[in-house]
Amino acid sequence: MTPKELKAQYRNERLAARDAIPDEDRIEKGLAMAAHGGDGIEVGAGDIVSGFLPIRSEVDIRPLMAHLRTRGARLCVPVILDRSTIVFRELVPGAPLVPCGFGTFGPGPDAAELDPDVMLVPLSAFDSTGHRIGYGAGYYDRAIDRLHQKGLNPRLIGIAFDCQEVPSVPAEPHDVRLDAILTESGLNFVSEVIG
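That's the 5-formyltetrahydrofolate cyclo-ligase sequence above. Prediction below.
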């Protein structure tokens, strides 16, 4: 099986496992993530944190984002511009959200575009060394690459349920390793493991 085929298999299996989480459990697990990450994720006043608004069976990290805001973080979320590009627009209380493609919503074109210092990254599957499998379109890989080209190095924190872990993600040259993974069991920094 090629790395691409194995990634597709893991993606399908782990998303099916995520889909199978009952709604009540998904809410409780999301609140546990907020408790673990709310004070565990290092942010200072004015740090820009990109989160995301949940689609399908993703965890709802809005409680976590709200807690980070109380600690002084500026929040933004991804907005799809075209088939290959996302930008991060500032999310401010009370601002209207507009449809942004693929079932997502986000701030409109009048919102400020920000470069995140910390990225909360949704994913399909992950392993203990910080490799991730996204949804297959490569939006986050390209966004992270653009930030690196600007000389920026945001901290990457994968957001997933425990059931999305796999033994080993087949890494490809374009893959960027996560710095940490937040699940309902806790915030785990992978840089110590891969040292």
